[in-house]
Specification:
The chain has helices spanning about 1-20, 200-210, 225-230, 240-250, 270-285, 305-310, 350-360, 405-410, 445-460, 485-495, and strands at about 100-105, 130-135, 155-165, 170, 215-220, 255-260, 290-295, 315-320, 365-370, 375-380, 395, 415-420, 425-435, 440, 465. By secondary structure, it is of the alpha/beta class. It has one domain (about 1-20, about 30-495): TIM Barrel (Alpha-Beta Barrel), CATH 3.20.20.80. The longest helix is centred in the first third of the chain and has 17 residues, at about 1-20.
Amino acid sequence: MLASACAVALACAIACARASGEPEDREPRRPAAPAVAPAKSDRPPTAAGSAAAASRAPPNAGPPTSATDPATADSSILTTAGHRPPTAHRPPSTAHRPPSTAARQPPAPPKSGAGASACLGDPPSDPPPWVIGYWVSRRRNPYTPEKIQWRALTHLAVGPVEPRADGSIDVSSLVDEPAAPESAPHPDATRTPRSPRVPDGADDLVARAHAAGVKALLFVGGGATHDAFAAAATDETRAAFVAALVRWARDEHGFDGLDLDWEPMRRADHDDFRSLARDLREAWPDVVLTVPVVHHNVNLDAVDPYWAKVAALFDRINVMSYGMAGEYPGWLSWHASALHGAAHDSPTSIADSVEAYIAAGVPAAKLGIGIGFYGVCYTPPVAGPREELRGGWIAAADVDMSYRNIITRYFEAEAWRWDDEAKSPYLSFAEPKGPMGCGYISYEDPRSIAERAAYVKAQGLGGAIVWSIEQGYLPRAAEGERDPLMDALAACFLGR
C-alpha cells in the first residue's frame, strides 16, 4: 500500500536524476565492520546460493584488528573496516536458511507535505528523537550547504578534525580562510591554504545550523585515528587536547558540542577515553557530547558494560549500524543495515545491537541507531540476501554506492525487492549491473527509513545518526524530489 502512492513520482525523479550524468562520489569513510567469523547455523537452505560480502577497505580504514584478542580489543567497540579476509580458498557455507518473502511493488518515498501519511507508528514524541547528520567537509559534491534540508535534522556533525600526538588538532578540512605565508601558526591547528570563504567552512555551516534551530557538533576523529587519539588523550597531553578542542570549537567558531569518534578503540584506551570525556565536561559544562560505537555481532561476546559506566558523560551513544554486511567464513549475503533478522550466518541487525547495548546497561533514551545513505554491492552470483558465499564479494560500499549513485546508475523498478523480515529494500539482477558489476545491492530508501523511525519511537530510543547526508542528494531530480531520504527523516522521525 505504501508503494503505489508515489511510484510515478519516483520514476520521474529517477529519470531526471539519471539524465544528469552526475559525477560519482569519491573519498569514503569507513563503515564499521563485524570482526570475526560466525558459527555455522542449522537453519534450513536458501533457494539461490551465492556470493560473499566484504566491504572494500576505504583509504582511512586503518590496520586490521582482531576482536579475538581480549587483551587488546573490546569487541563491543572495535572497528575493523580494514580487515578483509581472502575469499579465494573459502569453502562454501553449509548454513541453510529459508528464503524471505520479497515484495515486488515499487518503493513509496514519503515526500514533503504528503510524506507523513507514509510514516508508521505513533507521531514523534515531545521532545522528538535526535537526528544527527554527518557533513563530511572534504567531499566535493553537489550538496552545498544551502541545499541542506535542515528540517530533517536536530544536529549537524561537521568534520572531520583530527587529534595530533601533541594535543593540538588538525582542522585543515574546515578552515575558512587561507593562512598568509608570513602569519604566525594557529595555536591549536595548522591552517592549510584554501580559497577564501570555502562554501563548507565551519563558520558558514554553524551559522546556517543555528539559523535553522539546529545544533552544530564538531566531528573529531574517524576511522584509523586510534593512534592520534591515544597519544592526545594521555595524562601528559590531555589538558592541551581539551583546551584545543574547547578553544577552536566553542570559543572561535560557536559549535554546541563534540562528536568523539575514536576508532578503533581498545580496552586499554577506556580509562583515557573516560578521562577525556570527563575533562571536556568540566571545561565546557553545557557541551553536547556524543560518541559513535560499533554495532554488535551475535557471534561475539556481549557488549562491554564499560558503556553503561560512561553513559552519564554522554548525551548520546550512537550505534554505527550501517555497513553491517561482510564476506567472512560462514556468512551468507546480508543487508547493509537490517532492522531485524540477525542469525549466526547473518549476525548483524539494528535491533540486535540495540538490545545488546541496553542489556549492557546503556539507557535506551541515550541510544541512537545508524542510518547509511549508501548501500553495498555484491557481485554475482549473489542476487539477494541469505545466499551462500560462493566466490562473490562486496565490490563497493560507502561513497561508490551512495544513494545518489544507486538511483542514477543501478535502479530499475523491476529489480526492486522488499525483505519484510529485515525491513529493507534491495535490487536483484540476473546479470552484472552498472559500473561495479553488481548482482545484489542492499541500501536504504524512504520506506526503510519510515520503518526505522517507527522502531526508534516504539523502543523509546534517543534517535539516529546519518552517514552521510550528502550521499542522498539527487541534484537533477524534479524540484521537491531531490532529497527523498532527508524528506523521510523529516516526516517520520520529526513530523515535519
